[in-house]
Amino acid sequence: MAVGIFAGIPVRDCKSAVEWYTKLLGKEPAFYPNDIEAVWQLAEDRYVYVIEDAARAGGGVGMIWVDDPAAEVERIGERGLRPVDMEEHGNVCKWVFHDADGNETGIGGEIAPVS
């Protein structure tokens, strides 16, 4: 079975959210289905999108798993965003980012053990 995902993040203002998520994800949206949504393709059949929906804004929680999370967080920092927290679970780390509405996006993955 092939697996894909199309995960939505409710925000109060689509335009400002696009600016923030562009910094987080390091690229412009792949497409805009309409005036209140913007979609980024993370990998084949794997998408994240923001949708303007003030009533539901701020409750999103997700994590993007990457091969080298520390390097990715460093690149995100170069684009002007800083994590609010970092969690360690054995050899897996997650750096936590919050958008203006309070939605949480983690950047995480396995890290090399310290010798």
From TrEMBL:
Gene3D superfamilies in alphabetical order: 2,3-Dihydroxybiphenyl 1,2-Dioxygenase, domain 1
SUPFAM superfamilies, per the entry: Glyoxalase/Bleomycin resistance protein/Dihydroxybiphenyl dioxygenase (SSF54593)
Highest taxon listed in the record's lineage: Bacteria
InterPro entries registered for this protein in UniProt: Glyas_Bleomycin-R_OHBP_Dase (IPR029068), VOC_core (IPR037523)
Name of the protein in its database record: VOC family protein
